[in-house]
Structure formats: structure tokens, C-alpha cells
Amino acid sequence: MIVVTGALGFIGSCLIRKLNDENFNAIVAVDDFSKTEKLKNLEGKNLKEKVERTHFFEWLADNQKEVEFIFHLGARTDTTEFDVNIFNELNLEYSKKVWQACIEYSIPLVYASSAATYGLGEIGYDDDETKIKHLKPLNPYGQSKQDFDLWALAQAQKPFFWAGLKFFNVYGPNEYHKGRMASVIFHAFKQIQDTGTVTLFRSHNPDYIDGQQKRDFIYVKDVTEVCLFLMKHRKNSGIYNLGTGKARTFLDLAKNTFKSMGKEPQIKFIDTPADIRDKYQYFTEANMRKLKSIGYLKPFTTLEEGIKDYVQNYLMQDYKHF
């Protein structure tokens, strides 16, 4: 059995689809199944069992001999949430229990970290573990991921294989439920449908003109490819960046969304909301040398290819699921 926590979520549900496509069908989906608006993310997927998040550790104690791998992707991911207690409970303490269970039962582990740990990128976006203690996240979400990374690295006992993945800006199908936290591509598509225009944030940084803010956008299908690679690889434990290694502008993103919809670009700019303005990342770009050095050599989907697939095969198909 393969366990996926956060199974109802964006990346978790896409990973289950990928596992099914690779003929892994004994999947145990762990999540809060009272969140009915996300249940459609598991429609059409082959699962062995669904386990409530609060009952997972009891279930694991009873079934650990059958568990081959754990992907711990469940987390509170809202960067606008400032209640530290929520993040401590769901992102830090729960993750510690997963880690400790993987040691006790000799189960390999891949868990979700985040590029939000890099803050404003003052010391770059390098996944060298000696630099992690110097990172300065901008919000409690990023801090919770940073806190767990540091805790994991400090442990004398570790799972026999483990990897923490610092996800950069992931986009793709199954993110419809994320609201404000959904990708800019998702929001751009909806804006074009509703108004014919896309609204981007104006730059408040003199080093960047409007629309030239850059992020490392990675298609969720590439994320699932890397997860499968690590499940099969099972050596070279550590923390890894997961982006494409190539930053692209928001203007590129908007223009490609219009192009994929067969429309001429109509783009306007508004002020960045005051509540996030001083915590806004103007540039992110993953240093991907470390993952490549352990043998992951597949090319990443370009922004043009990823947007075209997402828009034409999912969003324009009435939010079809992956």
C-alpha cells in the first residue's frame, strides 16, 4: 500500500492519478473527508481505503506491515492565515508524528516543504542544507515549513529514506478549491472568461516594471513525475527544490493563457493588496542542480506547454479533473 496524506488536495489528488496511471492501485487516501467540496478530486481514482486524518496513526499502527511508502502532502497552505497555532498543529506537530512513525515502522517518506521558506530570496534559492537555518520566511505558513525542515535535519534518527520537496509555484488541474491560493493561471482563466481581461499586480519595486515580476512556475504533472522517481530511487535522502529552474514573468503567463484560449491579450494592472505588499516575492527560481545530480534527468514542462495543456484539456473542459 502507498499512503498519500492530503489526498483530497491539489497535489495529493494529482499524485494519486499518476500512481494509478503507473498501475499502483493500493492507495490509502488520508485527509479530512468532511471537506465535501473537494471530494470530486478523488472521483474515478482507484483507492484501497480512505482514512480520516485524525485516525491515521491508529490505522497505521494496525496496517504498517503493508505500507510500502508514505507521501505526506497534507498541510495548511494558506499564506494569508496568521494563526500560528493552526500551522503548529497541522504542519509541524502532525508532520513530526508522520516522521516518527516512518522510523518506527521502517517506511520511506517524501514530504511537502515549500519555496515559501526562502522568503524574499536574500540568500538565493539554493537547497544546500547548510543554508536552511539562515532562511527568513515571510509568513507563518512558510515558517511552519521551515521549522519542520530544520527539525528533520536535526534528528539523530531518520527514516531509512526521506525527502523533503520545496515546491515552487505549482499549477494545474484539481486546484479549483484553493480560492485565493489557486495559481495565477487558474485566476487568469476565470477572469478572461468573465471579463475578457486579466488583472495583474502592479510592481511596487523599482527594480521591476509592471508584469515583469518573475516566479518559477512548475506544472503539477512534473511534480508527480518527481514524486514517483523518488519513490523508486529511495536513496540520497535530503531536502530538494522542486521547480523548473527557469523563472518566467507574470506577463508571459497572462499572454500564454490568452493564447491557449484563442483570444487577444487584454491586460491591466492594479496595486498589490496592502496586506501582502511587504511580503511579496518579486523573483523566485529554483536551483535544480541537486535533484539532477541524483539522476532525475527528465525535462520540465515549459510554461507554454503547461498552460496549453491545463487550459485546453482541463479548464476549458468544464474544470475536468486529473
From TrEMBL:
Its cofactor is NADP(+). The keyword Metal-binding does not apply. It catalyses: ADP-D-glycero-beta-D-manno-heptose = ADP-L-glycero-beta-D-manno-heptose. Keywords: Carbohydrate metabolism, Isomerase, NADP. Binds 1 NADP(+) per subunit. Substrate binds at N169, R180, H187, F201, R202, S203, H204, R215, Y280. Its EC number is 5.1.3.20. InterPro entries: Epimerase_deHydtase, Heptose_epim, NAD(P)-bd_dom_sf. GO terms for biological process: ADP-L-glycero-beta-D-manno-heptose biosynthetic process; carbohydrate metabolic process. The active site is at Y141 (proton acceptor), K178 (proton acceptor). The keyword Isomerase applies. Pathway: Nucleotide-sugar biosynthesis; ADP-L-glycero-beta-D-manno-heptose biosynthesis; ADP-L-glycero-beta-D-manno-heptose from D-glycero-beta-D-manno-heptose 7-phosphate: step 4/4. Catalyzes the interconversion between ADP-D-glycero-beta-D-manno-heptose and ADP-L-glycero-beta-D-manno-heptose via an epimerization at carbon 6 of the heptose. Contains a large N-terminal NADP-binding domain, and a smaller C-terminal substrate-binding domain. This is ADP-L-glycero-D-manno-heptose-6-epimerase. It comes from Raineya orbicola. The lineage of its organism: Bacteria, Pseudomonadati, Bacteroidota, Cytophagia, Cytophagales.
